[in-house]
Amino acid sequence: MQEKGSISIHTENIFPIIKKFLYSDHEIFLRELVSNAVDATQKLKKLASMGEFNGELGDLKIEVSFDKKKNTITVSDKGLGMTGEEIKKYINQIAFSGAAEFVEKFKDKGDAKDIIGKFGLGFYSAFMVSEKVEVISKSYKEGTEGARWECDGSTEFELNSDSKETRGTDIILHINKDSEEFLDEFRLKGILEKYCKFLPVEIKFGTKDESVEDGVDKDDLPTGQAGKPKYKTVTTDRIINNTSPIWVKAPVELKDEDYLKFYKELYPFSEDPLFWIHLNVDYPFNLTGVLYFPKIKNDFEIQRNKIQLYSRQVFITDEVKDLVPDFLMLLHGVLDSPDIPLNVSRSYLQTDANVKKISTHITKKVADKLVDMFIKDRKEFEKKWDDISVFVRYGNISDEKFYEKAKEFSLLKNVDGQYFSLNEYAEKVKTNQTDKEGQVIYLYTTDKAKQDAFIQAAKGKSYDVLMMDGVLDSHYIGNLEQKLEKTQLKRVDSDIIDKLIVKTEAMASVLSKEEEETVKGIFEKAINNKAMTLAIESLSPDDLPITITMSEWMRRMKDMAKTGGGGGMSFMGSMPDNYNVAVNGNHPIIQRILKAESEDQKTKLAKQAYDLGLLSQSMLTGADLTAFIKRSVELVG
Ligand code: ADP
Ligand code: MG
User: Fold this and answer.
1) Distance between CA 105 and CA 614 in Å, rounded?
2) CA dihedral defined by 381, 383, 388, 389, rounded to 10 degrees?
3) Separation in Å, CA 483 to CA 312, 392, 489, 541, 565
4) Burial class (CB in 10 A: 0-12, 13-18, 19+), 492
5) From 77, 90, 141, 343, mutation site for ligand 1 pocket: most ligand atoms within 8 A of C-beta
6) pLDDT tens, residue by residue, 265-291
7) How far away, in angstroms, is 168 Cα from ligand 1 center?
8) Ligand 2 centre distance from Cα of residue 5 (Å)
9) Which of 28, 33, 36, 203 to mutate to test the pocket of ligand 1 (most atoms within 8 A of CB)?
10) 421 φ/ψ sector (left φ>0, alpha ψ -120 to 50, else beta)
């Protein structure tokens, strides 16, 4: 057999396009060739299992090697092989027109690089890095002879018979000048480990360490004549891949250690995950995978982009943005689906029905797992809650479907470390924390230590105070108010306790109107700060004399402006902090101030009371703090 011909007369030459515009993703040629080798091997095994191939399967390892001296990279398999006729059919016709169609479709699109990089164009991607490609193959079919196909990146090819005696295919790439970076052990190994780490057939990567010896270079001898080689070749072989990663196994076969070990294999330096979900779906789409729940730290941006997407164990990408809802991106692990349409653009991926179904399914599975854990072992669930609450709250805020299930197991934690489901909590506080308008008020703190004086005041009234100190909690609070009926959340220091939950008309004041004005005057003079809005309140004599608060509304606006939300409220961020100063007119200290001998003494006492108010909120610092201490010493002395 000897034949020369043109691969295609109808299509324009696609090779210059393949070479040029796929620039940044050249490395995927290796993924394409190795996965073809895997396919060929799997097909042979399949034929054997159906009794269509009765020969010896033997060692089916795929070998990837390179030769720096000859500028070649070789991928060899012992799969089903191809006859000359099959090469013409599969490589010249089918693969070529496939690649041509692919290139045609995307050559004018801006995101072409992106797509092709991720989803490959098959055998012809070899020409991204090669000036010549040889395919040497021998079919498993008895009585067929070997074949050698050669193409130099023009549409001309050459096909000859070959003396290859063993079954399978060798793809030999003659690497072009611009791609010599690939003739490097670490580069190649790196690419193999990225894309081929979990392929189902063993892949051996051979490194040749060539050291000069006496003798004649074997290549310089006439063919067929053996001579003492000039180069001694030391070959170190390594198996690159784990052929049966846990996601392809049945969950019943696996122990916790297996899941933990696999996690370490994926993320060598990470802390152990909290728990995991093994996905295994075959209808209406195929999806397998394991999703791990990491301990989510407050800086959760770095937790993203850890889910790897595979298609039949071939690595595709770790950008699964379009595939799973945003909150699930906080999870780690692998997803594998042959049903994800790979040869399409990203915008299409977002609207693809299959992708939508997969995304919905994953969300449901995750919610089901959490429900299950919550029901089976509440105590265990509570132990994990602090580490998963960010995740669950993010899901609640961003995904309605998730919220529908998550409201059952979403917990609230109070300052005493007790956990309540949403229903339990509503039940707990409804009697004591309902105001005269019938609104239930949930009190919360963002900083247990700093807001302690207010927490204690709330406890004095037997109110409960929730912890809301997570990164997303300012958003979660708004979300809770939308979803819970007749419920409002107030930070415990956003007003004096009697005004946080207004139950009855205010207490009578012991001060006359004139006295109130006098007290106000004294305090205004003592405080001398426009950002402090002063009011005389008639509270219980046991309440604090001075309470300094920032209103819930004002603080939320400021918080939102800080995090970039707040819809046009960004001016709030630059506004000075405004506080309310409540002077408890019924407190005994007010009488002392009124009865003090001199104006100076009155101001001093008022200042002292005010500073105590600031102190209880860690707002007293610097020179003011120094002055306060000095004054205190005088007063005590
Ligand atoms: P795809 O893998 O999507 O079919 P490719 O362009 O990668 O497309 O390959 C085209 C065809 O060439 C394959 O379907 C297969 O028939 C044949 N082929 C490629 N590589 C091999 C190989 N190593 N052994 C046997 N057949 C191969
Ligand atoms: Mg292929």
Assistant:
1) 68
2) 90
3) 42, 15, 12, 38, 20
4) buried
5) 90
6) 998 888 899 999 999 988 888 999 999
7) 12
8) 23
9) 36
10) beta
pLDDT of residue 528: 92
pLDDT band at 51 (very low <50, low <70, confident <90, very high): very high
Q: Quick one: which H or E segment has residue 590?
A: helix 588-595
Distance 39 CA to ligand 2 centre (A): 8
Distance CA 210, CA 224 (A): 22
Provide the pairing of β-strand 307-311 with 332-336. Answer: parallel
- Among 80-89, 191-200, 338-347, 450-459, which is the least confidently predicted range? 338-347
Q: What are 205's strand-pairing partners?
A: 64, 238
- Contact predicate 72/182, CB 8 Å: no
Q: Check pLDDT > 80 for residue 327.
A: yes
Predicted pLDDT at 67: 94
**Spacing, Cα 337 to ligand 2 middle (Å):** 16
Q: What is the pTM of this model?
A: 0.79
- What is the Cα–Cα distance from 312 to 335, expressed in whole angstroms? 10
Element housing 548 (H / E): strand 546-549
Nearest CA to ligand 1 atom 21: 36
Say which residues have a Cβ less than 8 Å from residue 342's Cβ, sequence separation at least 6: 118, 119, 120, 311, 316
The one-letter amino acid code at 262 reads F
Distance CA 77, CA 122 (A): 16
Number of Cβ atoms within 10 Å of the Cβ of 23: 11
CA 434 to ligand 1 center in whole angstroms: 71
Please state, in angstroms and rounded to a whole number, the distance separating the CA atoms of residues 342 and 323.
12
Buried b / exposed e over 345-382, threshold 16 CB at 10 Å, is beeebeebebbeebbeebbebbbebbeebbeeeeeebe
Is the four-CA dihedral 615, 617, 620, 625 of positive or negative sign? positive
**Mutate which of 7, 39, 93 to test ligand 1's pocket (most atoms within 8 Å of Cβ)?**
39
pLDDT in tens, 388-403: 999 999 999 999 999 9
Give the pLDDT confidence of 119-173 residue by residue, as tens digits.
Answer: 557 898 899 899 999 999 999 999 999 999 999 988 889 999 999 999 999 999 9
pLDDT at position 99: 79
Summarised one tens digit per residue, pLDDT across range 402-446 is: 999 999 999 999 999 999 999 999 999 999 999 999 999 999 999
pLDDT tens profile 230-268: 555 556 678 999 999 999 999 999 999 999 999 999 988
Ligand 1 interacting residues, C-beta cut-off 6 A: 32, 36-37, 39-40, 77, 79, 82, 90-91, 95, 98, 122-123, 169
Instruction: Give the burial class of 313: count Cβ atoms within 10 A of its Cβ; 0-12 exposed, 13-18 middle, 19 or more buried.
Output: buried
- The atom number, within ligand 1, closest to the CA of 79 reads 24
The closest residue, in CA terms, to atom 16 on ligand 1 is 90
Q: Residue 210 — very low, low, confident or very high, per pLDDT cuts 50/70/90?
A: low
Counting atoms of ligand 1 from 1, which one is nearest the CA of 35? 2
User: CA 589, CA 584: separation in Å to the nearest integer?
Assistant: 9
Question: Which DSSP symbol is given to 576?
Answer: P
Q: Assess contact for 93 and 4: CB atoms under 8 A.
A: no
Q: What percentage of the chain exceeds 70 in pLDDT?
A: 86
